[in-house]
Amino acid sequence: MPGVSEALSLSAYLGEWLQVGTDVIVVGSGAAGLSAAVEAASAGARVTVLEKAPEIGGNTLISGGYFAALDPVRQKRQHIFDSTEFFYRQTFEFGGRRAKPELVRRLVENSTESLQWLEGLGMRFKPKVIELYGGHWARCHCPVLPLGQGYIRALSAAALRCGVKICTGSPVVDLVFRDGRAAGVTVLEGGRMRTLRARKAVVLASGGFAANARLIERYAPQLRGLTTDNIPSSTGEVMLVAHRHGAALRDMQYIQCLPGCPPGKTHRVRFHSVVSRFIFVNTEGRRFIREDGPRDVLRDTVLSQPHRLAFSVLDDAGFRDYGILVQKEAVEALEAGEAWKAGSVRELAGKMGVPAAALIETIAQYNRGVRSRCDRWGKSPRELRYTLSHPPFWACYAGMTIHYTEGGLDIDEMARCLDAKGRPIPGLFAAGAVTGGVHGSNRLGANGLTGAVVFGRTAGKMAVRLNV
User: Fold this and answer.
1) Where is the FAD-dependent oxidoreductase 2 FAD-binding domain (predicted)?
2) Which residues belong to CATH 3.90.700.10 in the chain?
3) Are 204 and 428 in contact (CB under 8 A)?
4) Sheet holding 67-68: strands in order across?
5) How do residues 120-130 score in pLDDT, each as one tens digit?
6) Cα separation of 443 and 408, whole Å?
7) Helix and strand counts by DSSP (H, E) for the chain
8) CATH of span 4-208+406-465
9) Gap between the Cα atoms of 464 and 43, Å rounded
């Protein structure tokens, strides 16, 4: 990946650090952290990014890569109505009206400009927008490169061009305050604790806690035992460190799940991403919900099925519509016996272990609904675009897996961390999945990367501007 080879170990950079210091420390190297670093450096600050993992990218690197934004070019070309108010209303309403309105407003109003900013850095998106699973409107931009690779390539290259120092294998274990102001961090390096000072600010972009089973059970005990699709380092320690220093937490009970690897299985296949291409069926071979429903409703409904299990089913036309990495996931799962491919629906049912007659009727009924533009489960007519009629047919497990923790550090619209009384903590900013209040109880599909970039950029700008 271009630029990544220029990431340093902290020990390699320590001498320079001690000599010249840094203005802004950014904790985390996903989309939020790198966006903050680029903006702060572009404003003239010396910036250092500290990444706990051996490589940069965080969850962004393995994400689906979709970016939700108002797009007057692509949407107009596809005859898709959209507006700031409609995007705001959907985000706020589907989030249970529990998000902070000013944060939702900032996300929505800055989505187009942030999309264009990314494209200006070299990020490439496909020419058409789609409605992503749980996205509820065709404003989701699909990257040309697989998953989140394009973001990390473009952002890390931009950061290095701006002189940002990126240090991997550098876990932050504490924050340093001076006269009530965030003034640095404590990092574990080579078995030693080192205190690193920041002249202006600290930006926390360390991700959520979706890989921390203990915290998941604490805040959402009904999800205990589920797998996660996050990287192992998404454990929330930096969030908890900030909380110990007085930063407020909010929305910690809101945890989003996506179809994925059930407990006891090892492969996740993302056949669910494009809602017009697949259907859900349960272990009885029958549909039980519309596939374009809210993600929290889909989660709870799948978990209420026998064995807390469902399957995603699609045909070969849908399979070929996915990118090479999703196809690779499917082939690997096929070889492991956790996905199935068959020349007929009857054969597919046999491999899945569901009643053949039920699955045959389910697919026939769905196809009739597509042709009549009227689905018995209420799937939107705009997503009733493709019948499942092109063999071979595919299916995979669609158990629920922990995907995104909507809760975290409370911030304001300038990405400043707030204390329990709602007061900004001087010098401390946060962006991305380490924060709460942006998405409410249910994050709209593709809004995760949008929020990361919008608030990462905000944090980077404000870290410099508010400390002049």
Assistant:
1) 23-449
2) 257-402
3) yes
4) 67-68, 140-143, 125-130
5) 999 999 999 99
6) 14
7) 15, 23
8) 3.50.50.60
9) 7
3-state secondary structure of 459: helix
Q: What's the CA gap between 407 and 45, in Å, rounded?
A: 30
In the block, tokens 């934004």 appear at: 69
**CA 33 distance to own-chain centroid:** 14
Other CB atoms within a 10 A radius of the CB of residue 406 amount to: 28
Which member of 295, 299, 416, 457 is catalytic?
Answer: 295
Token representation of residue 393: 């047919």
Kindly provide the residue ranges of all beta strands, DSSP E only, lying in 102-225, ordered along the sequence. Answer: 125-130, 140-143, 165-168, 172-178, 181-189, 192-197, 201-204
Could you tell me if 439 and 90 are in contact, meaning their C-beta atoms sit under 8 angstroms apart? no
CATH topology of domain 257-402: Flavocytochrome C3; Chain A, domain 1 (3.90.700)
pLDDT, tens only, 309-356:
999 999 999 999 988 889 999 999 999 999 999 999 999 999 999 999
- Distance, in Å, from the CA atom of 90 to the CA atom of 97, rounded to the nearest integer, reads 10
- Whether the per-residue pLDDT at 458 is higher than 70: the answer is yes
Classify residue 422 as left (phi > 0), alpha (psi -120 to 50) or beta.
left
d(CA 32, CA 255): 19
**Tokens standing for 353?**
């272990």
Distance of CA 432 to the CA centre of its chain: 9
Alpha carbon distances (Å) from 270 to 22, 215, 391: 41, 26, 19
- Structure token digits, residue 468: 């002049």
CA distance 159 to 146: 21
pLDDT band at 13 (very low <50, low <70, confident <90, very high): low
Q: 314 φ, ψ to 5°?
A: -150, 170
Active site residue 270: no
pLDDT per residue over 191-224, tens digit each? Answer: 889 999 999 999 999 999 999 999 999 999 999 9
CA–CA separation, 437 and 257 (whole Å): 18
Report the alpha-carbon angle 377-295-257, nearest 5.
130
Which DSSP symbol is given to 62? G
Burial of 397 (0-12, 13-18, 19+ CB in 10 A): buried
Residue ranges of the chain that CATH labels 3.50.50.60 = 4-208+406-465
Give the phi and the psi of residue 101 in degrees, each rounded to 5.
-55, -40
Indicate the Cα dihedral angle 20, 21, 23, 29, nearest 10°. 120
Q: Which two tokens stand for residue 420?
A: 């329990």
Q: Cα–chain-centroid distance for residue 27?
A: 17
Taking CA atoms, 19 is separated from 14, 15, 418, in Å, by: 9, 6, 32
Give the phi and the psi of residue 31 in degrees, each rounded to 5.
Answer: -60, -40
The backbone region for 405, taken as left when phi is positive above 0, alpha when psi lies in -120 to 50, beta otherwise, is beta
